[in-house]
Amino acid sequence: MKQNKNLPTMFRSATLRLTGWYLLTLMLFSVIFSIIIFQVATNELGARLERLETSFEGANLTYPNQLPMQPLSLATIRLSEQGKASSNLSIELLYINFGVLLIGGVGSYFFARRSLAPIEKAHNAQSRFTSDASHELRTPLAVMKTELEVALRDKDANSDTLKEVLSSNLEEVDKLTKLSEMLLSLSRLDSSPIKLGSVNLNKVVGETIKKFNKSAKRIHITSKGQQIVYANEAALYNLIKVLVDNAIQYSPKDSDIEITIKKKDVFASFEISNSGQGISPEKIPYVFDRFYRADSSRTNGEHKGYGLGLALAKSIVEVHNGELKVTSTPDVLTTFSILLPLNSSVQAKTQK
User: Fold this and answer.
1) Residue 310 burial (CB count, 10 A)
2) Which domain CATH number covers 187?
3) CA 182, CA 249: separation in Å to the nearest integer?
4) How many helices (H) and strands (E) does the chain have?
């Protein structure tokens, strides 16, 4: 799976350019204000010294470092002090502008990164979608093309043969449709915020399980109260569907699947357990990665998958600020656990 390598370079370059513009604007204002402050301060200082000169005019004054017999007027003292004050003020303003340059540079880079973050995220999501699609679309399209080419070259092909080819192609189209839906769902979660509200987790679980028809008889639900979560209902349906489908596919056909729904602190807990081959400990950290399959059985046979279901489940849980984890004892039991934030105010009303 290849992604556009120019994207990181492009965004680094854009970040530096935007940082430069931020810093240039900041320094421009800093220099302008420094000039204004310098002019105001020196004018005020000059005015004060002139008033002092007028007040002490005619008095016999001495001045530090004055040479013997050197005549010294108040005007000379005023100009000397004014020059020193202007020099000191210039140095202080120079230090201030240097500090603004350093702090402003760091701040400008931070705000530049923050400004470009949503754009970079959208670009990365688009790039990931393109690379993911090309990665998985290649094989079924090649299979369809080969079968069609063979059928077209076979001069003795009858209607049964052609029906078999079309049936095989239809299966590949169904797989491509499922793949496209998964990729689009992942892309939307990566790039767009979702609308959240009060959702009854128990209701979503019950309605989702009904859609599995005969397999629903294998599923047993233990519920400890109605759990109202703060979630997106459509995304929650997809999440439960992925986990239930995963449990059904990778467990013996006559085995039971256990679901437990309960409250855990400020979260609603959903656990789904199934027997079967399970997942070895070294593979557990990777089961939520895109296109990862924990074993070869996931790529063969009736339930061939693309390794996107659990990645989608993980993304859905993350956008809900929840937690998804898996524990597995090979050939014994595998359990997927979800924690989703409760809608506290609605939960309190429901329990009353």
Assistant:
1) 23
2) 1.10.287
3) 17
4) 7, 7
pLDDT at 66 over 50: no
What's the total number of domains in the chain?
3
Bridge partners for 339 per DSSP? 269, 323
Q: Which domain holds residue 293?
A: 197-351
Flag whether 33 is in a domain.
yes
Per-residue pLDDT at 257 exceeds 90: yes
- Distance CA(278)–CA(252), nearest Å, equals 11
One domain, residues 105 and 222: no
CATH code, domain carrying 329:
3.30.565.10
Of 95, 126, 157, the position where a domain reaches its end is 126
Contact 311, 294 (CB under 8 A): no
Q: Kindly state whether residue 1 falls inside one of the protein's structural domains.
A: no
Q: Six-digit token pair at 7? A: 């994207």
pLDDT digits (tens, 9 = 90+) for 189-209: 766 677 888 999 999 999 999
Average pLDDT over residues 171-177: 79
Mean pLDDT is lowest, of 22-31, 173-182, 331-340, for: 173-182
Torsion angle of the four alpha carbons 101, 106, 107, 108, in this order, in degrees rounded to the nearest 10: 80
- The pLDDT tens digits for 118-165 are 777 667 766 766 666 666 677 778 878 888 888 888 888 788 888 888
CB 259 within 8 A of CB 299: no
**How many alpha carbons lie under 13 Å from residue 331 in its C-beta half-sphere?**
0
Q: Using the structure block, give the residue that is written with the tokens 């809608």.
A: 343
Categorize the per-residue pLDDT at 333 as very low, low, confident or very high, splitting at 50, 70 and 90.
Answer: very high
